[in-house]
Please model this.
Amino acid sequence: MPKAGNLMLTQVTIEPGAEWTCAGPGWRVLAIQTGIAYWISSACRRELAVGEVLVFSPAESGAVRASQLGEVEICYYVVHPEILGGLLTLAERHLLETPALIEKNRLRNFLPGHPLAESFARLKARAEAETALSRRCQLLQLFAEALAEDLRHPQPPRRAAQPAQERFKQIMAAFSEQELLQIQPEELCLRCGCSMRHFTRLFRAHFGQSLRAKLTQLRIQKAQELLLSGSGKIAAIAYESGYRHLGLFNTTFKKHCGLTPRAWRRLHAGGQTG
Model:
C-alpha cells in the first residue's frame, strides 16, 4: 500500500527528557539540528552531535532522547523503496529489501564535517526556496549517497555463473520496474536467450516469487499510485496499469487489496499529502 510521507522533509521538536522513536516501515534519514541529544537502543547509548546525520534501516528500533536541559530539534525524512518503481530497477529494489542489507545498515552515522552531513545541512538551509520536486530529488540522492557502497553494483544474488543467468542479471539491472511492465515476457526471454520456462525458474530463484506474481504486484502498485493522484476514470487507470479488461482489473485489485478500486480510493485518497 502507498505510504504518506515518502521523501517529505519533516521538522520535529523533542521536549526535554522526551524521546522520538524511529521504528516503522521504510528507511529514515535524520539530522540533529539543535540541542543535546542521545541515541538510545538495545545495542548502545551515546550522545549525538549537532549536525550529525543518522540513517536507519527498517530493522532499527531505537530512539532519539532529548537532554533534561532543553529541547532538541531534528529534521528527518522517510524513503519507501516499494513506491519508487519508476526510479529503481528491480535489482535495486530487491537489494534494498534484502534482509542482509537491512541488517548490515541498521544504523549508519555521518559526523559533522562529513560530506553527506554537510549536504544535508545545505539542503535543509535552502529547502524553502526549492520546488517540491527538486527537494524530493535531492533527498533521494542523499539517501543513495548514504548507501552508495551497496548500491554501486546492484545485482540479484549470484548463482552458478551460467550464460543465461548472467544475461538475466544484466536485464534485471537495466530496467526500472515500470519499464518492465511495458515489456512482454516473451521479449524478456528472447533477450535472455532462454525459454519462458527457464526464465521463470531464474526469476523465482533470484526474487523468491514468480514473474507473473511480481508483474501483478507492480501493476496493482501502479494502479494505487494513479488512484491517489487524481480523479481519473477507473477504466483509464486500469489501462495505464496494464489491464486491457476492466472486469479483470477490478477482480484482481479486490483480490489483492480487499476492496474495489473505487472503494479503495475513497478510503485512502483523503490521507495522502505531498
